[in-house]
Every structure is written in structure tokens, then in C-alpha cells.
Amino acid sequence: MANPPTIKEIAEKLKLAKSTVSRALHDHPSIGLRTRMKVQELARALNYEPNQTAIHFQQKKTFTIGIVLPELSEAFFSAAISGIEDAANQNNYMVLLGQSHDDAAREKKIVEIMKNHRVDGLIVSLAKNTGDYAHFEALEKFNIPVVFFDRIPDKKDIHYVACNMESGTLQAVSHLLEKGHRVIGMINGPEQLVATPQREAGFKQALQKKRLKFDASLIVNSDLTREGTRAAMQQLLANKRKATAIVAFNDYVAQDAVQYALEQGIKVNKELTFVSYANLPLSSYMAFPPVASVEQYPYEQGYKATEILISLLGNKNEQDFQHIIIDSRLVVR
Amino acid sequence: MANPPTIKEIAEKLKLAKSTVSRALHDHPSIGLRTRMKVQELARALNYEPNQTAIHFQQKKTFTIGIVLPELSEAFFSAAISGIEDAANQNNYMVLLGQSHDDAAREKKIVEIMKNHRVDGLIVSLAKNTGDYAHFEALEKFNIPVVFFDRIPDKKDIHYVACNMESGTLQAVSHLLEKGHRVIGMINGPEQLVATPQREAGFKQALQKKRLKFDASLIVNSDLTREGTRAAMQQLLANKRKATAIVAFNDYVAQDAVQYALEQGIKVNKELTFVSYANLPLSSYMAFPPVASVEQYPYEQGYKATEILISLLGNKNEQDFQHIIIDSRLVVR
DNA sequence: CTGTTAGCGCATTCAC
DNA sequence: GTGAATGCGCTAACAG
Questions:
Q1: Do B84 and B28 meet the contact criterion of CB atoms below 8 Å apart?
Q2: Where is the HTH lacI-type domain (chains A, B) (predicted)?
């Protein structure tokens, strides 16, 4: 209940100067062994803990990084945040959280509040509808670096970490081809997402490697809603070439597609095999999980993004824009 | 790139005292309209933002609340955190995050770091194996209130929000009875969890209401792992009284149980109906979701816990321990 | 209505 | 090796 002990208090009790105590606490070489011991001993006895708010104020540094992302209830992001937290904690940083809930206006507000809160830097995964990056650019003036991950802005002068879906898709389709599938369908995502063309490219590349020709009617798009996916499935099943395997945009899409297929009396993963992206815990709870998943490494993305941010905080004069692209990879169950 | 503007700067440019500027910025009534306008105008022009770290230091208050919970990848907690965040933001608080990953040692460390970081208060859901609450009790000395939710300590002198599973279970079993089921099984959880006896009590109560007698062999326990649940199912299916409905401890358990039943050739939700707890997004992605779920209101728990915490921060002299118990409730799909 | 002064806790520069 | 003095940016108590 009494106020927490301060350096001043220790100094008075020991009849020393505050500065001496401060130095002793920091193991400053110029302090004699005897006094250093005395000081540290008393500090321990009093349960002295430096007042971080004072340090933050004085050092103009809060050892706090802000993290802005769309939605923690998406497994991808809750995995990513663990990577962020781990990397931050290992470097003695704390993590301030803000969910945009995929609302650009809310994202902007969060960024501003975090700026005022004087976070040292920001880790960001954009809201779906963020088109204007002015609120991020404004941070430059305040020397608050930003590292984006996964959902990154469409511009070049930024730091980011992302996952390339092309390699994983190539592996997924190749895997299906090796299993003997010759007609493979794909439920792809909205055109705006960078990941969509990447998936298509990987798909085509796998066919090309086997000298098979690409049939555009076997790629359909979903807006990622349940309805969109069901419509996509309907289209795919109505196609004159009957697919024996389907690459779904992610596990959520896969699950909707599987459900639709089951309703149509299709024997899932027998008559129609599914492959998906994400490999999230979700898939282990599916009744008919995809036979293989393309891993996007959310934890690693978060971890690396944070490492970059912290290195940026170290040498403020770093000019180059860092970008790490992680290759996605197929994981067979 | 230049340092952010300060009150001092504004004061000098306007040939006023710092305190005048400070008051003008805060719309203090004693400041003349003319000067107030002048100050606010210049502040806007300079993009002045108060330095929060200075305010935190000076006010001995950071407007930050720490949140310590086991695991964000559990849907329950990621929902809860949104409630916490919303309540916090509405009251101009920020949220500092720490996951214990169900490790008591890590939890303890997080609490200490947050204490040093001078959070104003803490929202906590305990790690599974936390048995020692000393690190929380230590916070009292520093006047840092703690509000627990869902996974709460087994002691009385605390603030908490929790959900009583008894009412929901009563509703769930009654629902099944009304649908004509006469032999109902339950997969309950580990004995240590407070929620386990609550479920059993609700179960018995529903039977009693219908003047049906309770058969202990129809309640089996799972340790919540997949294997534990499968063993429980095996036991239940081997019982001489064949259940036509099962109440599963949560959606994860339900899914494992459903999978096992399917493997045994049982027509799920036809021959064997499932009811579960949580009603998490997970269940909407199951191929055979439970026909009804007992809602535990994670968002509301987080929200209310935060409201309590913030009220505690308002009147520090509040002595009474607040506890809110939310009744669980059945949601039929 | 406005100015002056002090102090929050700490690290740091400059003396001795 | 140690002490004294300064200032980070802000609010608030006290004067006028």
C-alpha cells in the first residue's frame, strides 16, 4: 500500500547520491564493489523495481510494440500472434493489441491511438478493405517503424513478411497428379487478394511440368462465404469434365465444399479428394479433413515480422526495406 | 523527423505559460475564450499530440490493462478477448497481451512483467496448472486490481466473472427429453474443473424434473484429449442401456465423439443425437454439428470482467469483491 | 484569468 | 569512485 520504493529512497537510506545508486543498480564499472553490493542488497530487500513509466518517459522508448490485425478468432491470426509475442518477449518487448475486425476505419483509429501511446513500432496485417495507407505513412514522421505481414499493402516502400502460395500449390497439385488424378478442380479466392493469382500460377505450373494442358473451366472462384463456395462447387460438379480432386482456397472453404459434396451423396476423399490450405487446428476436427494442406506458417510469419521490427528499432538509420517471403509447403496428413 | 511538438513549444510561440497552454488544451473553464482558441488552433496546426508517456509517468496511471489468458487459439479465448478489447477501448484503455500457454511459470512471469510495466489492472483466466496465487496476491500491495474470468482461482476474496454450466445443461437435457429421448449419455470433463460437477448437477436436475431416475453408468469422463474422448465413447456405446443422445463436454469433444461414432457406422444425429457446449464457430464447420449447444458467452464474460476492472480503477476504495455469474443457455440450431 | 514553481523517477553530464 | 545538477513533458498547487 505504501508507494513502491524509488532510487531516491535507497539513496537516502544509504546516504548516497541518487546517481550513485542508479549506477550501482546498473553495474556501472565506476562504482566500487562494496557500495554496489550494499545498494543491490538493499534494493532486493525493499523489493525495488524500477518504475518503467519513468524510464519510458525519460528514454523516449516504451519497449512496447503495437500489433494490429483483423481478427483473432481466425486461427491464422491467433497462431501468428503467438509468434509475435514470443519474438517480442525474447527481446524484452511487450505487446499491445488491437483488432481491426476488418474495418479500415477502426484500423486507422487503432493506429493513431497506438501512436499516441508511443509504441516503439507496429506489426500490422491489413483489414480487408484498407485501401488508403496514409495513417501508416504518417508514422514515419514519428520514427515508428511498421512491419506488415500476410495482408500487406500494395506498395513497395514497406517492410513485410508474406507467404508465397505458388510453391505450395505446385506441390499440392503435383501430389494429386502423382496419386493418379487427371482432372483436378480448384476453388480459388477473390481476385483482389495477392494469394489468388499465386494459387493459379502454381496450379498451371504443376500441369505444365507433367505436360498436361490447362482447362480454365476447372478453376472457379468463391468469395469465401459459405454461399459463394457452394455456388463454386455446384459449378465445378456441373462441369463436363468431372474432377476427381479439388484444391480448396483454405480449410474453411474446404469444409463448406465437403459439406456440399456430402449432401450430393459424393463419397468425400474417395470419389472426390480434397486438398486445402492452412493446416489449421480446424482441419483436425473435420469429419472429412483434406488429405493434404498447404502450410502458410502463421507463427513463423509473426515471429519473423517481429524480428525485423526489433532490428529496425535497434538501428534507426537502417534505410533498406526488408521483405521476407516464406515459401508455402504441402503437408500430407 | 523533428521532435514532436510539446506544450512548452506552444507556450513559447504564443508567449504564454506552459500551464496556461495545458489548461487551454483541456478546456479548463478558467481560461479565456480568446487564448483558448489561439492555443487550440496552434496545437492543431502543429499536429500537437500530448506525450502519453509523460502523462502516464506524472499521473501514475498508464490507461493500460494487462490481459493474461491461456491460449488465443482456443476459440473461447479469442472471443473473450474481443469483449475485453471492446470494453477497454470504450473507456479509453489499451490492452497489453500475454498468453500463458497453460504454463503456470510463464503466467507468473507475465504477471510480474506487467506489474513492472505499471498496468492499471489485470484481466486473468488461469493456466490449467496454476495452483499458487501468490503472484496475484502480490499485486494488491501495488494497488493493481485483478479480475478473473472463466478459469478462476479456488478462493473467495477475488473479483471474477464466470459462467454457470448447470442451467445450460438442465436446458440441454430437458430439450432432449422433450424430443423423446429416454436414455441420454454424457461425456463429462476432468473432476478438477468447476464446470464438471455443474454439468452433472444440471443433468440430474433435468431427469428429476421429469421424475426419471439417474443412471450413473451413463455419465463417463474424458480428459478432453481425443483418445480420452474415444475411450469415453467406447464405454458409453458398450453400456447395456443404449443412449440415443449424448451431451458432450464441448464442441471439441463432440467432434471427436462424432468421428468415433461415424467410424462405428452410427448415423449421427439420427440414431445418436449430439448436444454440446460452446457454440463456437467451430461447430458451424463440422460436417455433423451438434443439434444444440450450450452457450458460454465468452465475449460477454470478457466484456463484463473488464467493466468490473474499470469500475475498480475508478473508485480505488471499493472493498467488496465483485462476482458475476452468467447463466449458460441452450441454443438450438 | 494567467503566471510561477515544483515534482513525478530516472539516467546522465559534468564536477570533484 | 561519488555527488550535484539537469531535464524528459506534463499537471497541479499556489500566487497573484
A1: no
A2: 5-59
Please give the pLDDT value at position A131. 83
In contact, B94 and B88? CB cutoff 8 Å: yes
For A134-161, the DSSP string reads HHHHHHHHTT--EEEESS--S-SSSEEE
Mean pLDDT of A282-286: 67
Identify the DSSP state of B268: B
Which residue in this structure is represented by grid cell 500463458?
Answer: B100
Q: What is the nearest CA distance from B296 to chain A, expressed in angstroms?
A: 16
Q: What is the pLDDT of residue A251?
A: 87
Contact B286 A287 (CB under 8 A): yes
Question: Which pTM does this prediction carry?
Answer: 0.89
**CA of A235, C1' of D16: distance in angstroms:** 84
Neighbour count for residue A27 (Cβ, 10 Å): 9
Cβ of residue B57 near strand C, that is under 7 Å?
A: yes
Lowest mean pLDDT among A89-103, B47-61, B157-171, B318-332: B318-332
Q: Cβ-count burial of A146 within 10 angstroms (0-12 exposed, 13-18 middle, 19+ buried)?
A: buried
Q: If residue B40 lies in a helix (H) or strand (E), which one and from where to where?
A: helix B33-46
Distance CA B304, CA A157 (A): 42
d(CA B199, CA B221): 12
Of chain A residues 58-97, which have a beta carbon within 7 Å of strand C? 58-59
Cell numbers at residue A142, please?
A: 514519428
pLDDT tens-place string over residues B236-259? 999 999 999 999 998 889 989 998
Instruction: Say if residue A308's pLDDT is above 80.
Output: yes
Q: Which residue shows C-alpha cell 506489474?
A: B115
Task: Summarize pLDDT for A11-59 with one digit per residue, the tens.
Answer: 999 999 999 999 999 999 999 999 999 999 999 999 999 999 999 999 9
Chain A: residue whose CA lies nearest to B317: A1
Residues of A (113-132) whose Cβ lies below 8 Å from B: 113-118
CA atoms within 13 A on the CB side of A118: 22
Specify whether the backbone of B21 is left (phi greater than 0), alpha (psi in -120 to 50) or beta.
alpha
Q: Please report, as a single letter, which amino acid is at residue A80.
A: A
pLDDT value at B63 more than 90: yes
Strand duo B273-278 + B245-248: pairing: parallel
Q: How far apart are CA B320 and CA B301, in angstroms?
A: 19
Which element (helix H / strand E) includes B106? helix B104-116
The Cα–Cα gap between B116 and A50 comes to 7
Which domains, from first to last, does chain A contain? 7-50 (no CATH), 62-162+298-326 (3.40.50.2300), 165-295 (3.40.50.2300)
b/e code B163-172 from CB counts within 10 Å (16+ = b):
bbbbbbbbbb
